[in-house]
């Protein structure tokens, strides 16, 4: 029993010594770390904050030299522009003189007159008059006994009545070889859907042999539409067929046609 008690006491003392050795080793490490921290950062030392550096030196504490603060200067690499820089564009005004039209001179063409060549005037010699009877000349006779009087047909304003432009028609007279008016002959008018016969002398307002055929109530412009022929009372043609041209004109709505005897 005694041997076991002594052995237990020895084991307990060994453990306590080991713990104390570890504790002091830890304190030594902490002291070294704190000292290194004070040397690295003097501002952490509360004594240095309260006492000046001379007192710290008297107490045997280390002091750090305070270096003067230097302000770093920065030299810009690129040039500094004004605070407000605005690009301006000044337009250049160019006064262009107005274009002037230079008239082109047109050459004047001088007509070249042909050279007139004078031909000698021929000299006529009198030819002997043939002996024998003098020949007589006769006019060529028409196939029909009556032909148009010179100036016929003629387009004139309405002289048939007082209707003015509200009338459209043909009229005329007939003369024999002695320039006497002939009555009792037939004037046939065809065209435009009409086929009308008028007797010479039936409209004495134009003259003793006057005749008239109305064609409408307004003037019409036609070509190769209306045809007129003078005939005997038996229907035998006495003149050729006359083709009329009419006009849509109030001043030419009346066509006058006169026949004269040819042979």
Explained architecture:
- By secondary structure, the protein is of the alpha+beta class.
- Among the domains are: 15-64; 146-261, Immunoglobulins (Immunoglobulin-like, Sandwich).
- Helices cover 19% and strands 20% of the residues.
- The protein contains three helices and eleven strands; from the N terminus they run αααβββββββββββ.
- The strands form three sheets. It has a four-stranded mixed beta sheet with strand order 2-10-3-7, with no helix packed on it. The protein has a four-stranded antiparallel beta sheet with strand order 6-5-8-9, with no helix packed on it. Strands 1-11-4 form a three-stranded mixed beta sheet, with no helix packed on it.
- Strand 5 and strand 6 form a beta hairpin.
- The longest helix has 39 residues, at 2-40.
- The radius of gyration is 76 Å and the shape is rod-shaped.
- It starts with a helix and ends with a strand.
- 12% of the residues are buried.
The count of DSSP E runs of length 2 or more, i.e. the number of strands, is: 11
Taken from the alpha-carbon principal axes, the silhouette is rod-shaped
Structural class call reads: alpha+beta
By DSSP (H or I, 4+ residues per run), the number of helices equals: 3
What does the largest sheet look like? 4 strands, mixed
The separation of the N and C termini measures 206 Å
The residue ranges in which pLDDT falls below 50 over 5 or more consecutive positions are: 1-5
* Radius of gyration using CA atoms only: 76 Å
What is the name of the CATH superfamily of the domain at 146-261? Immunoglobulins
Percent of residues in helices: 10-25%
**SSE order in H/E notation?**
HHHEEEEEEEEEEE
The CATH class of the domain at 146-261 turns out to be Mainly Beta
Mean pLDDT: 77
Proportion of β residues? 15-25%
| Overall CATH architecture of the domain at 146-261 | Sandwich
Q: What do we call the CATH topology of the domain at 146-261?
A: Immunoglobulin-like
- Strand order, sheet with most strands: 2-10-3-7
């Amino acid at each position: 029993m005694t041997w076991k008690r002594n052995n237990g006491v020895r084991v307990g003392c060994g453990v306590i010594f080991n713990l104390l050795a570890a504790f002091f080793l830890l304190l030594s490490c902490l002291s070294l770390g704190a000292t290194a921290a004070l040397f690295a950062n003097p501002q952490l030392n509360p004594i240095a904050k309260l006492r000046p550096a001379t007192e710290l030196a008297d107490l045997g504490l280390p002091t750090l030299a305070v270096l003067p603060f230097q302000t770093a200067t920065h030299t810009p690499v690129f040039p500094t522009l004004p605070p407000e820089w605005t690009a301006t564009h000044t337009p250049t005004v160019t006064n262009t003189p107005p274009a002037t039209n230079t008239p082109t001179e047109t050459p004047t063409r001088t007509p070249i007159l042909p050279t007139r060549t004078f031909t000698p005037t021929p000299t006529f010699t009198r030819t002997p008059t043939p002996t024998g009877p003098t020949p007589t000349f006769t006019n060529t006779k028409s196939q029909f006994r009556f032909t148009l009087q010179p100036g016929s047909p003629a387009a004139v304003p309405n002289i048939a009545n007082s209707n003015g432009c509200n009338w459209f028609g043909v009229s005329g007279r007939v003369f024999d070889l002695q320039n006497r008016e002939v009555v009792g002959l037939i004037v046939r008018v065809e065209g435009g859907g009409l086929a009308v016969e008028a007797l010479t002398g039936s409209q004495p307002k134009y003259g003793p042999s006057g005749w008239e055929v109305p064609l409408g109530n307004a003037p019409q412009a036609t070509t190769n539409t209306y045809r007129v022929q003078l005939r005997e009372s038996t229907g035998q043609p006495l003149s050729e067929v006359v083709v009329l041209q009419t006009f849509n004109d109030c001043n030419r709505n009346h066509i006058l046609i006169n026949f004269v005897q040819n042979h």
